[in-house]
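Standup notes, structure subgroup. Blocker cleared on the FE2/S2 (inorganic) cluster input:
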Amino acid sequence: MTKIKVTDRAGNKLELEAVEGRSLMESLRDIDNGMEALCGGLCSCSTCQVFVEPGWVDKLQPAKDDEQELLEGSEVYRPGQSRLACQIRMSPELEGIEVEIAPAE
Ligand code: FES
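Run returned:
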C-alpha cells in the first residue's frame, strides 16, 4: 500500500492508501466527493482528472499523447499539473503523493 494525500471535490483533505500496481483512479472513484471515472480507466473520458502538486509531477511517467489530448480538451485543464488518475500506476516511489481531484465539468 502507498499513502496518498488527496483533496476531494468538497475541499476536504484526506489521507488514503492506494494499492501498488493499480491505478490511482481505483483508489479515488469510490470515496465521497470523489470522481466519476466513467470509462473505467480506458483513457477516453477525462472524468478522473487530478491536479498533481508541483514537486510530484516529475516523479510520474510523462503523459502519452492520448492522455495529453484529453486533458487539453478539458475545461479545467491546468498545464503542468493535470493528469488522468487512471493513467498513474501506483508504486513505492509515489509514497506521499499529493493530488487534488479536479472539479466536474
Ligand atoms: S477513467 Fe476515463 S479517462 Fe480515466
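Discussed briefly. The two ends are 31 Å apart (CA to CA).
Next: hand off to the docking folks.
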